[in-house]
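Protein 1 of 2
SEQ + STRUCT:
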Amino acid sequence: WLNPLFKIGYKRKLKQDDLYSVLAEDRSQHLGEELQGYWDQEVKRAEKDAREPSLTKAIIKCYWKSYIVWGIFTFLEVKTFTYSALLFRVCGSVLRRTCVERVQWLKEGTRVVQPIFLGKMISYVENSNSVTLHEAYGYAAGLSTCVLLWAVLHHLYFYHIQRVGMRLRVAVCHMIYR
C-alpha cells in the first residue's frame, strides 16, 4: 500500500491530497474531544475534592475498555497453555463463549502441536522406519500451518495494541496543541 506513495514521492514532493485519509474514529478531532471531555470531568471532580487533577485518571476512564480487552489478551499471551486452561475452567461459561478465548485456544493449540510435528520430522531425517515420506510431508505442512497461523494471530494482537496506543497518543497531542 505504500508503493504508490513512494512512486509519487520519487517524482515530486508529496502533498496532503496524495496521502490516504484517516479513519473517522481515528481522527485527531474526535479522539481529542473525547479525551478532553473526560479531562474536564476530572478537573471538576478535582476542584470539588480539593486536589490536583490527574491526567492518568482521565485516560483510564476514556480508554479502559480497550485496554481491558487487550490486557486480558496480553495476560493470556504471556501465560502457558496450562494456566490458560485453568483460567477458563475457573471462569466457566462466561469466557468460554468469547472470541478472545477461541483465538487464544487456537494459538496455544498450535504451540502445543509444533514440537510434536517437529519430532516426527526429525524421526524421518534420522532414517527411522516409523515415518514414511508422505507422513513427513504431512508433518512439515502441519508445522508450517501452525507457525503461519500462530504468527498471524500474534501479529493481529500487536496491531490492535499499537492502534490503541496510537489513538491515545493522538488524543493527548490534540489536547496539548489545542
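Protein 2 of 2
SEQ + STRUCT:
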Amino acid sequence: SNCLDYQTRELEIRYGQKKQTDSSYQKSYVHALNSTLCATERALCCVLENYQTEDGINVPKVLQKYIPGQPEFLPFTKELPKDSTSLKAKGEAKTKGGAAPKLPATGELADRTKK
C-alpha cells in the first residue's frame, strides 16, 4: 500500500534539498510503501538469486519502469573486497566446515590449564 508521506513526515525523510532559510521554502518528503503483504528483503533476495550474473544484475522487464533510466542491466561498480566473508565462506565450503578441531588422542585427558 502507498502511505504517501504519512510515515516519512514523522521520520523527517526528505529528498534532494539542502537547508533553506527562505520563508517560501516548503519541505518535500519522500513517499513510502508499506510492504504489509510482502517481506521486502525476501522479495529482493529472490530477484537477486534469479537475475544475478558475474558482471551485475539483469533487471526484469516488470521492474525496469521503477528504476530511473529504465536500465536492462545494472553492472557491479566495485570489486568484491579480498577479505570478504563471501570469499571466506567459499573457502570453508571446500573444506566442508573449515579445519577440524584438535582433539586429544584416545585415552588422554585434555589439558585445560591456563598457561
